[in-house]
Please model this.
Amino acid sequence: MIARRIAASALLVAAFGAFLIPFQARLAAEAKAANFRATALDLDLREQIGQMGFLAALSGFRSPLAAFLWIEAHAAWENTEWGRMAGLFNTVTTLQPRSLLYWDMAAWHMAWNASVSAMQDTKQPSEALRIRAQRQYFQLGKDFLERGIRNNPDRYQLSLQLGVLLRDKFEDHAGAAAAFLRAAEFPDAPPYCRRFAGYEMAKCPGREREAYEFLKALYLQGEKQRLPTLINLLREMEKKLDLPASERLDHS
Amino acid sequence: MKSLRGTWAIGANTFTELVRMKVFYFLLIFALLIIGSSAFVAKFSFQEQFQMLKDISLGAMSVFTSLLAILATANFLPKDMEDRTIYTILAKPVPRFSYLLGKLIGILLLLVLALLLMAGLFLAVLWLQERGVLAETRAQLQGSSAEDLALALKEVAAATFNANLFPGIVIIFVKAALLAAMTLFLSTFASSGLFTILMAVAIYFIGHLQASAREYLMSGADIHWWTRGLAAVVALIFPDLQAFNFVDDVIAGVAVPAGLFLQVVALGGLYVAVYFSLAAMVFAGREL
Model:
């Protein structure tokens, strides 16, 4: 009787397993395709968050752990401990790579706050070294955004922020234009992404004609795109390119 | 029909018994946690505040329901044997299968109620915070154009509620139901409640690694047959709890595909059915 029951249980488990393993594998592939469960729990993460943290991450409590570490990073910010903040941001973004807020804020703290602080560091008498530190923080901010984009290829927000960073901190207008354009390709991206791309393109030497055509196409899309900045830039470019009156837009 | 009525009576009785055990006191801790955390994060930007509130609340909901599922279920059989109520029930024409099903129904009812209360509390705090931030935004943008104001308010609303929160909460319940069925199965052959709890907690951790074992098994890499066999056994015996881990992505604002959600719910239902069948088989042969 007992042997029969054990055999029946084993048969049930085997039948269940034969169906289950391929089903679970398919489900995991579907989740991956939908950009779900993207976090890899590897040894690097284990070193970053310690044994207890790793245990919590393993048990499916990644987001509360990320929230607690974010609060810790906030405390580090209040004490202007930039290096510690960078480390904590690294861990938080590894734990919650799909949270745009964490990538965005981490990049902002590094490229805007830490870089300014490095430049105003009274303990560092050498200006060259201060500038070097500032650039390193710009680069850290850029790295956060680039990694964020790789982890969130289905969302526009971080490409938009990368465009802003390249424009304001690196003065890399070609790079900024490409980032804004990448953001604009998403159907839910706000219309200003495309305008920003055009403005940056206009600043790239040798691409004035391309930028003019791009901005003109935006202008022709209708009233919503016809903002004073766009109209003024078009006028300036018409003068700069010395376009004949027949090719110019009627801005009146 | 009579058996169904008996099962339902056992379920309702189990539920009442659990409520009388004052298990809902944990809700006080939950309330303190989310109200405390929402007050603590007030100095952050509103996006951060909402993100933290969701992180902590949904994480706590997941922890509490999982703990409740394991701890409440593990003590059923040992307690009923100690009180001798199991003998009174089974002496009547109640099949052992109905007895177990009734117990499972009771715990599932408790989990539904606990989750509803926690979700209600969480959504109420989120709503109150949203109201506060909206009022603040309106006051700050008093002189701005209607378009700017509308855009800012839309941004606040987008950072608080999204439809994905609901599938996330449903999946928390499905995972807890699976854990309850698994613990019930363990308790049918365990010698004590403590053993059941320890086993269930161990399986909980292993279950979150099951996906890695399965990936290793199916990777086609050049590995020893015995390693492959071990990975197969792990993938087969332990539930894949990572499959039920929607919360992290839901908080991050990732859209839950309907197909994936339904398949995960179905997978959870299947696990519950299999664990319950195993529990019924073992319990049928157990000497009481």
About this structure: Chain A has a mean pLDDT of 85.
